[in-house]
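Subject: design request, 100 residues
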């Protein structure tokens, strides 16, 4: 080979080695990002499960507290025929609200 051709070949080889190094680095980054994506997907699913459990718990709590509150409202609307019962229900409602 002539000197000009050797320089071109050397430059091409150096570019090839540089590109191969960059490709290796990019492949490693892709692998790390895929791993991170898998972790985030699993965390998302766990959070969705927790959210659904909390929603279900909220509905149970709402169902438990609705009857006493309804009774208090009915009693207030009808003039409160039994003050001790009304007072007891109001206290019960307040205690339950504090617990949640």
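Subject: RE: design request

Done. Sequence follows.
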């Amino acid at each position: 080979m002539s000197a000009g051709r050797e320089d071109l070949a050397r430059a091409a080889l150096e570019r090839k080695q540089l590109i191969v190094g960059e490709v290796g680095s990019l492949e490693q980054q892709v692998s790390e990002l895929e791993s991170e994506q898998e972790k985030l997907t699993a965390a998302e699913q766990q959070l969705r499960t927790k959210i659904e459990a909390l929603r279900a718990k909220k509905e149970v709590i709402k169902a438990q507290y609705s009857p006493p509150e309804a009774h208090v409202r009915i009693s207030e609307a009808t003039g409160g025929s039994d003050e001790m019962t009304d007072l007891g229900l109001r206290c019960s409602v307040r205690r339950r609200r504090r617990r949640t």
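Helices lie at 3-78, 83-99.
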